[in-house]
Specification:
Layout: E1 12-18, H1 22-33, E2 38-42, E3 57-58, H2 70-86, E4 91-101, H3 108-122, E5 131-133, H4 138-141, E6 150-161, H5 163-176, E7 180-183, E8 185-193, E9 196-204, E10 210-220, H6 226-231, E11 241-252, E12 259-263, E13 270-276, E14 279-283, E15 287-288, H7 300-313, E16 326-335, E17 349-355, E18 358-363, H8 369-384, H9 408-415, H10 419-429, H11 433-442, H12 457-466, H13 472-479, H14 490-502, H15 508-530
Parallel strand pairs: 1-2, 1-10, 2-7, 4-12, 10-18
Antiparallel strand pairs: 3-6, 4-6, 5-6, 8-9, 9-10, 11-14, 11-15, 11-16, 12-13, 13-14, 17-18
Length: about 525
């Protein structure tokens, strides 16, 4: 693979997007599909910040009804419907149980009312109407759940997703339509001409190439880093965001067939217990954050908070920090509000012209990224008087892996792979699974990278040659989820490194440096729960 990259210095783009999280990726896709000339730069890997640190849910936000955010919930439920259709391999319906205990802040009447309104707001796009679970069936549904004090359980549906790959597929879709997306390219300075932002000065962190990238309009989609970028132009810029930290734990599976929406006894916050492969994903917390978003990790206090609540609700599991497989932390960027708790701040987004020629995306939630992107590009069309007749099609045209694909049985027969491997490929790559299977067969890369995971040698090659992976961490942390498994990918690290060097995708020096960086990242992620 050609590692040499050059920044597009002598081009004028219609739109330059700073930030390769879900908002930047979605905006790039919509703009490119409507015919805009687009460039996107991201200082790390795509989705390496907040967009890969979510609860892995596409949901309306049942708890937002408590604060009267009916418009947001309706919009999110509509977007849930669209994403189920355009990315069925990455977004799928998920069954939820909602137990109510004696002393919970929200009693059965409040929950019943909220779920009824939730169904109503979803309308014809609803996955399934909620229902109450009969008392005699409590223990059958979730045997390990605490029965003492349990008053009622409701059953409803939302959706689960793979956040990092959903972000990536928006990037790949934008690229297919002519956009130029770059990861590991940092905006070092906002360029200004006659009082107007006309692009950025950028540095390629892989090649040290540096120069201007100019555009008619620029969008600051950097999430938690938004205020930092704006401060480079206005040294005393008033903060527009309130940052909060959320952590998640990965533990052995607590409930086999359902996710759970739970209430913390300590502060009344809701949190999730979501199936994630053979594990459960527990989270999230929501605490104010004032540090550097580049250096966020789960603290001892954060981890203990979740462990205490899980132990109370699942006493039979005897869960302690020894059972924690992995943890991760991310920083949310919320539109700044003073005098309210983090839970009360709206998750609605705001598109603000923070300087002539520069829009900043403030707030928002993962589920509504597509509608936010549509709003941005509708506004851009009017502002630039370009492509005004081109309608948004991102709600109907599938993402790159979202098109129909064959069955695992058909794939298995054609490429002589096990059916279980083909199920994995289809769930990961959707309609692109055949491309990976073909690479495995033709390149002699059908062996597994690691004895604990279904990923093939072909997948790391495909990630570097077709999915813009640049480092081992990109592959193990975001193209796959191996980093957050018990082996953390360490048992497949040498095998992966060997494949990349043998095919001259990376040099031996690059591989050695990347292996050291990857091991250090794992140590940082584990520091919190190993210290308990």
């Amino acid at each position: 693979m050609e590692r040499e990259r050059r920044l597009p210095k002598n081009q004028l783009f219609d739109l330059l997007i700073i930030g390769g999280g879900i908002h930047g990726a979605g905006i790039a896709r919509d703009a490119a599909m409507r015919g805009f000339k687009v460039c996107l730069i991201e200082k790390g890997d795509f989705a390496s910040g907040t967009s890969s640190k979510s609860s892995k849910l596409i949901h309306g936000g049942l708890r937002y009804l408590e604060h009267g955010d009916f418009k947001l919930v309706r919009e999110a439920l509509q977007e849930r419907h669209h994403l189920l259709n355009i990315a069925p391999h990455l977004v799928h319906p998920l069954s939820f149980m909602l137990p109510i205990y004696q002393g919970d802040r929200r009693g059965p009447f409040w929950i019943k009312t909220g779920l009824t309104l939730y169904d109503t707001l979803a309308g014809k796009r609803n996955i399934h109407r909620h229902e109450a679970i009969a008392e005699k069936d409590f223990a059958l549904q979730i045997p390990s759940l605490q029965e003492k004090g349990l008053k009622k359980i409701y059953h409803y549906y939302d959706a689960q997703m793979n956040d990092a790959r959903l972000t990536l597929e928006n990037i790949l879709s934008a690229q297919e339509k002519g956009a130029l997306p770059f990861n590991y390219v940092q905006a070092t300075e906002l360029l200004e001409k006659e009082g107007r932002i006309v692009g950025v000065r950028a540095r390629d962190l892989l090649s040290s190439d540096e120069g201007p990238i100019e555009a008619r309009w620029t969008v600051n989609a950097t999430g938690p880093w938004c205020d930092q970028l704006l401060a480079r132009r206005l040294k005393k810029s008033k903060p527009r965001l309130r940052l909060t930290k959320g952590i998640h734990l990965i533990v052995p599976r607590l409930a086999e067939n359902h996710a759970l929406l739970l209430t913390a006894q300590k502060d009344g916050r809701v949190f999730f217990c979501v199936p994630w492969g053979p594990y459960s994903l527990i989270g999230t917390t929501d605490t104010d954050f004032s540090g550097n978003p580049d250096e966020v990790h789960a603290s001892l206090e954060d981890i203990q908070y979740l462990l205490d609540e899980i132990h109370r609700l699942f006493p039979k599991m005897s869960l302690t920090h020894h059972n924690v497989v992995s943890s991760f932390a991310g920083v949310r960027s919320l539109v700044r509000e003073e005098g309210v708790s983090t839970a009360q701040i709206s998750r609605e987004y705001k598109i603000e012209e923070t300087a002539p020629g520069l829009w900043s995306i403030l707030g928002g939630k993962f589920t509504t990224y597509r509608s936010l992107s549509e709003a941005v590009i509708n506004r851009l069309s009017k502002k630039l008087k370009l492509h005004e007749d081109e309608k948004c099609q991102t709600a109907s045209i599938p993402l790159p892996g979202g098109e129909k694909t064959g069955t695992a049985e058909e794939l298995s027969k054609e490429f002589h792979l096990s059916e279980s491997t083909c199920v994995h490929l289809i769930q990961t790559y959707g309609g692109k699974a055949r491309n990976v299977a073909q690479l495995a067969q033709e390149g002699g890369l059908s062996q597994p990278l690691c004895p604990h995971h279904p990923h093939l040698k072909a997948e790391i090659v495909y990630a570097f040659t077709h999915e813009m992976a640049q480092t081992l961490d990109d592959f193990f942390s975001r193209r796959t989820w191996v980093k957050h498994s018990p082996c953390h990918g360490l048992e497949g690290l040498e095998q992966a490194s060997r494949v990349l060097t043998e095919l001259s995708i990376l040099s031996s020096e690059e591989v050695q440096e990347q292996k050291e960086n990857y091991r250090e990242n794992i140590r940082k992620d584990q520091a919190g729960f190993l210290s308990l």
